[in-house]
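Exercise 3.2. Students should predict the tertiary structure of the chain below and write it as structure tokens, then compare their answer with the key that follows.

Predict this chain's 3D structure.
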Amino acid sequence: MQAEREAEYSKGIELVAFNVNGQKYCLEITKIREIRRWSPVTVLPHSPAEVLGVMNLRGAVIPIFDLACFFGMGKTQANERNVVIICAVRDRSIGILVESVSEIVSIDMSEIQETPKIKSETTKSVIQGVLSVEGEMARLISLNSIVDPIATDMELL
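Answer key:
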């Protein structure tokens, strides 16, 4: 899998680093459409805990996911300091609530280390690898692996 990613990004990769519950994560910049300040969402009754609700973004209704909740860290107490990262997932837009965005990082693929071997299939599918950002370990996440199970249940995608 590492060899496939290296071939795909032979010139390197740009990532957006952000914080969720005090932990650092990254997403490929090509998956991100925009970063917005938090604003209240419309709650959807009987939706999974990870889905905060929906937001109207220039006429499009998009679901907003709470990454901390998805990662089993409890619900994020959304406030004006939080941000929503609007991402592209298979021709649709979704938003993910995070504490803050810290920086854009340009790295070589060789800097991404494989996710340690653990028993959790969810962790193995969600975390594509780990890398050092500002001297801190960050996790590179697979957006599709996070959104797919929830979106399938809710028929969002």
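Discussion points: DSSP finds four helices and ten strands in the chain. The helical segments are 2-8, 67-70, 121-126, 143-154.
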